[in-house]
Design a protein that fits this description.
Strand content: 15-25%
Number of helices: 11
CATH architecture: Alpha-Beta Barrel
CATH superfamily: Aldolase class I
Shape: globular
Largest sheet: 8 strands, parallel, barrel
Oligomer: single chain
Length: about 240
């Protein structure tokens, strides 16, 4: 894929992310300013900053049950309700991936179901933590299960564990979306360069067809990726 195509397509697909323990209102303000100036899809931040970000007019995603993926459906639902009340447009919830991998899928999926019910119209992205949940068949099954429960997106990783996003995990996730006939995909955790982004876009084109990747169906969860894409654009190296 040509670099200019990657830059043109990828910028609008980014969830510009800051999920650091030392985030401050000033950090979030700068993040939102950058998001508005560049036209990314959304910002992804912790719940305490949602109200602040929402006031800027940017689309706001936040994380719940994060990053551990605890098997406590009630706690996840309460956290989701608080986030939606604060103005979150999108909820990224961590599937209890350890429980799912161990075969206790019912308990794991209860968290997703409870979060879906608490979303009140917000977009729901479910983080599978693909680097830890298991191999391709387990990833495919988990993606299919959460899509069946009404998830709007399946997402690779929290970005807090390694490995994060991989093409090997992305393939069964996209195949599950194709089989379901609905849903979107988010690559998060280690997508840092235009070259990285291009590989995921090529895979999505292969599996889902050209023209499928829009902000309604495909996201990159990233912080450094935007800088690399803008650097490519400014330098004209593509």
């Amino acid at each position: 894929m040509q670099r200019d195509d990657v830059v043109r397509r990828a910028v609008e697909l980014i969830d510009l992310t800051s999920l650091n323990d030392d985030d401050t209102p000033e950090v979030i303000a700068a993040l939102c300013e950058q998001a508005i100036a560049t036209g990314v899809a959304a910002v992804c931040i912790y719940v305490p900053f949602v109200r602040q970000a929402k006031r800027t007019g940017v689309r706001v995603a936040t994380v719940v049950n994060f990053p551990e993926g605890a098997p406590d459906a009630g706690a996840a639902a309460r956290e989701t309700s608080a986030a939606v009340d604060a103005g979150a447009d999108e909820i990224d919830v961590v599937l209890p991936y350890e429980r799912y991998a161990a075969g206790d899928r019912t308990a794991a999926l209860e968290v997703v179901n409870a979060t879906r019910e608490a979303c009140e119209g917000a977009v729901l992205k479910v983080i599978l933590e693909t680097g830890r949940i298991g191999g391709p068949e387990t990833i495919r099954s988990a993606a299919a299960d959460v899509l069946d429960l009404g998830a709007d997106f399946v997402k690779t990783s929290t970005g807090k564990l390694q490995p994060g996003a991989t093409l090997e995990a992305a393939r069964p996730m996209l195949e599950a979306i194709r089989a379901a006939g609905r849903g979107g995909f988010k690559a998060a955790g280690g997508v840092r360069t235009a070259e990285d982004a291009g590989r995921y876009l090529e895979l999505a084109d292969e599996i889902m067809g050209e023209g499928w990747t829009t902000p309604q169906t495909f996201r990159f969860g990233a912080s450094g990726l935007l800088a690399d894409l803008l650097g490519e654009r400014a330098s004209g190296t593509y």
